[in-house]
Amino acid sequence: MSNVDSFGAKGVLDVSGKEYEIFRLNAVEGADSLPYSLKVLLENLLRTEDGANITADHVRALAGWDENAQPDTEIQFTPARVIMQDFTGVPCVVDLATMREAVKELGGDATRVNPLAPAEMVIDHSVQIDAFGNAGALERNMEIEYQRNGERYQFLRWGQTAFDDFKVVPPGTGIVHQVNIEYLARTVMTREVDGVLRAYPDTCVGTDSHTTMVNGLGVLGWGVGGIEAEAAMLGQPVSMLIPRVVGFKLSGSIPAGATATDVVLTITEMLRKHGVVGKFVEFYGEGVAAVPLANRATIGNMSPEFGSTAAMFPIDDVTLDYLRLTGRSEENVALVEAYSKEQGLWHDPSRELRFSEYLELDLSTVVPSIAGPKRPQDRIELTDAKEQFRKDIHNYAAGDADALGVGRPSKAVDVAMADGREFTLDHGLVSIASITSCTNTSNPSVMLAAAILARNAVDKGLTSKPWVKTSVAPGSKVVTDYYEKSGLMPYLEKLGFFVVGYGCATCIGNSGPLDPEISEAIQANDLAATAVLSGNRNFEGRINPDVKMNYLASPPLVIAYALAGSMDFDFEADALGQDAEGNDVFLRDIWPSPIEVEEVIASSIDEGMFAKGYDGVFDGDDRWKALDTPAGDTFEWSEDSTYVRKPPYFEGMKAQPEAVADISGARVLLKLGDSVTTDHISPAGSFKSDTPAGRYLLENGVDRKDFNSYGSRRGNHEVMIRGTFANIRIKNQLLDGVEGGFTRDFTQEGAPQSYVYDAAQNYREAGTPLVVLGGKEYGSGSSRDWAAKGTALLGVKAVITESFERIHRSNLIGMGVLPLQFPAGESADSLGLDGTETFGIEGVTALNDGSTPSTLKVTAAKQDGSTVEFDAVVRIDTPGEADYYRNGGILQYVLRQIANSN
């Protein structure tokens, strides 16, 4: 709580006769010329200044920001609220429940463990597409979802009642980021502090990297690991360096053939190329006013794909119109306008702001695009898609003959379905076409463009190919309402695009199984099957185990590819089919006109839809209300639960931390290459019976059909440890030509191949610490707490890489794992390390006296007796992170703070 006001910034803002306490930015010299996002951070420091963690010097450092300097000043950012989805949120609640017991054991009051900032969770990651292509799909998938996840949902309902300031949006409502912009986001927050109503900018951190979608609404927020989110819920500020801010000027407007998705894929490619990891991106210029709010949200959503911390749009009239449309109160809208103008947070397109770096995009130059086959930044212009596929297919169908004489690897595989349908498959078949994910399913312009394209296709007599698994998973129920009101739903359904659920679905890997006959044909013939989705993530192995190549595309293009049935398709030259008169029909013949899209938006969307869609949003349906929910301040753990178990983080923990020690005799658990994502590290998707996780569940009486996904079992550390580094596409360089969660076990004679988990258990019994070696951009991708938790629980003490992605690095520290980097320009390979060495790391003990060494001496002893020595760069970047590391992790640090305070 703020108890210092060094700058006399505290004042009063009167809005229509109602008074709010605010902290005026103009009290600080230099504030006026800051970018929008840094003004929000400056207000945060003014309001939370306490003379200890947050001082007048911090405020002055931010106000005097040098746009050309490299970040070196640490500040403490206190988010106004925390938002979670259920996969990453369940472990947060499990840990809070465990902390309550640990505080009790250390002699403290259990009920002191409570969110200190409002925390909201939206259950959206659990729905899988088991049923599809028929009118009963939605209901059936919800039914299966509750059967699979009942235990977790009971636990979350307990949390909803046990913790103050914690709310749960039940399943079947929508995707967390869309619910955030349509309902939960305040834009300007109000809260009573010491009997006075205070107004301040809405800021948030979320347990999903796409939290940045809310940046489109002028709300500063980004994704953090579940570990940091828990700390923020418990009142710990987020430690960060004052960032560089990249100004991204927008001009012109989107041309007729292109969509918001094409804009965002273009921006993603540009910013990835430019390099924005760890930076803020801020959009400015005359073109901003012409960008609808939904498009702003689409752009903000993709911030993790271009690597920036946040991708901000300032508040303007477009923001206010959206707040009104989505049913926010007039009082709230008036406050947002008055507060933004008073604080210099209102967008003035005529002002040239100070930025660290500048980029510009003329929106009129954007062309239809897709991205793939494995990264969101690999943009392909649609006109080049067939040619690019023919180049890329060689990486997925190596050595295959051109059996069909089509100028690329090919094979004809005949499939007979149980219902009598017969067809022939080949490499490049589109096995999944899914309109899914937060990125696009909150955007009426692309969602209605897809529906109009579906109508035009049906009118021309076109149909989806029979081998394509088609689905629509809207971001909220509002989408279904406007689909129905526009009269376009029957056309989508005619092409097989029935609503299958309200959630992330395909984008998170919950695509569900393909038809068994198709799956068998793909597996038996090693076909390079493809998926096309309107998502933001298309990493290898993510979408479906049968699918090798994944492409991101706008919702209308998802439908176009369902009609085409193959990635080996040129939309300019190849016909999608014939009309009733036998004339060829091309994509250009059915592409929706932007004018019609706008007309349908205007006539189909109104405020009433949002009010109806969010009425009683926290109450849930009859299934939710019928859950048998335990009561009490502490949770009664069930010994036989395979979903929710008490984790071991605090076992034997003392009131004061023990000294940190140097690492000696460590073995390499994995040696990995570049761009290893948290999808590769963290357990995600489905798993088989012969894996360590499968064996554990079978031993605990769970049938194979009830395994569910790793994500749904995030509340059970036993399953999650076994799934860490178990991705089917991970390549551990300790083994030649082997993919999947395997390593060499040096505790055994001849160091045979072994599952990563089994080897780690043997190392633990032998008392051998572990290290992981990595390349560039280690840990990129979604913010996944289990990538760090699993790493720590496997016994890994240090990760040595060429470079880290921001969130994963801080999460490793949050779990007591040391992040180190090879010296600049060096790598494991350049130093001649092959992973068979034994590692020693000296100088760690220097952290015990409160300092953080810049480098540590690493010695790698080879089997022939020779050694490799190098000075590894310590990536503990702030004093706060050093505190966490000394305590063995962020949760231990917070727990000691609570237990040791009166």
Automatic annotation (TrEMBL):
Residues 65-565 form the Aconitase/3-isopropylmalate dehydratase large subunit alpha/beta/alpha domain. It holds the Pfam family Aconitase_C. It comes from the Bacteria. This is Aconitate hydratase. It catalyses: citrate = D-threo-isocitrate. The keyword Nucleus does not apply. Pathway: Carbohydrate metabolism; tricarboxylic acid cycle; isocitrate from oxaloacetate: step 2/2.
